[in-house]
Amino acid sequence: MSTDETTAAIVTTAPEDSPFRPDPGTRDQARQFVLPLVVRVERAAPPSRTDALRTAARAVLVLLGDARSSGDGEWARAVRDWQDARIRKVVRRARGAEWRRVEALPGITVTGETAEVRVFPPVPLDGWPRDLARLQVSGTDLDDPEPPVEPDPDLPVLWFNPGLDMSAGKAMAQAGHGAQLAWWELPDEHRTAWRDAGFPLAVRTADPAHWHELTSAGLPLVRDAGFTEIAPGSCTVVADHPALRRGRS
Predict the structure, then answer these.
(1) Which of 35, 134, 167, 183 has the fewest CB atoms inside 10 Å of its own CB, making it the most exposed?
(2) What is the pTM of this model?
(3) At residue 224, what are phi and psi to the nearest 5 degrees?
(4) Are strands 7-10 and 33-40 parallel, antiparallel or unpaired?
(5) Crossing angle, helix 49-65 and helix 188-196, to 10 degrees?
(6) Could you report the per-residue pLDDT of 92-136, keeping only the tens digit for each?
(7) Which DSSP helix (H) or strand (E) runs through 139?
């Protein structure tokens, strides 16, 4: 798989209980894994862009919170190996028979208002299952039929950089990065509460003034590795979870 199909986060800080290695050089030396996400895009009824981003973020959280991803779970080793290297995610699209084939593979389907996203346990960068490797990356340019409304102030919000233009597939992966960083910064009780509630969250693009405030607030911040679409080190998403916000007030 070529690097132009991969989006990775640059993790600059992490809490003590996070598996992220703090040294980028050490992460680069580790075997590289990728988290596959597949969005269902039927020709007659594609999902809205904002809901696809939100559902992709929730899919990442659902996998992280699944019992199979921790302890002695069947996916735990792959998840640990993935998080010990660069945090890579790839979003591909499927429809019709393609979607039915990927549903038969081990993973979890998360459903939003208009979107369906299936997330799979991490795989080696050079070891994709055939039915996932054959799917297309392009074609995930989605639209919102109406502008999103203001988010509920009590909801976690993944705020996107207003100065960057990303395809829906790229943005879905960035939303997943932001959700993952929020998950690892939350105390256990807040992780549990968020999981038990079904991982409610919103995704919005910040206005420029708000973006400046967010990036200065000490909240989890995604810096892209720059494999595709945008320059290396670009700040893409701030994860504004109320529990993290309170901890910095």
Answers:
(1) 134
(2) 0.89
(3) -75, 145
(4) unpaired
(5) 120
(6) 999 999 999 999 999 999 999 999 999 999 999 989 999 999 999
(7) none
The CATH homologous superfamily of the domain defined by 3-247: Bit1 (3.40.1490.10)
> Given a cut of 90, is residue 87 above it in pLDDT?
no
Cα separations (Å) of 229 from 122, 160, 205, 221, 242? 23, 15, 18, 18, 30
| pLDDT above 80 for 27 | no
Whether the CB-CB separation of 233 and 214 falls below 8 Å is answered with no
DSSP 131: H
Per-residue pLDDT at 240? 97
Instruction: Summarize the confidence of residues 138-159 as an average pLDDT.
Output: 89
Alpha-helix residue ranges (DSSP H) falling in the chain: 24-29, 49-65, 76-84, 96-103, 130-133, 168-185, 188-196, 208-215, 242-247
- Predicted confidence at residue 13, as pLDDT, reads 38
At 137, the pLDDT band (50, 70, 90 cuts) reads confident
Residue 82 near residue 122, CB atoms below 8 Å: yes
Rounded Cα–Cα distance for residues 117 and 50 (Å): 13
- Residue length, the chain? 249
The distance from CA 178 to its chain's CA centroid, rounded to whole angstroms, is: 6
Question: Would you kindly state where each structural domain of the chain is located, as residue ranges?
Answer: 3-247
Tokens of 227: 């494999």
Which residue in this structure is represented by tokens 């799979």? 120
Residue 213 structure tokens: 């405030």
Q: In angstroms, rounded to a whole number, what is the distance separating the alpha carbons of residues 169 and 39?
A: 9
Which of 206, 192, 208, 168 lies closest to 243, judged by CA? 192
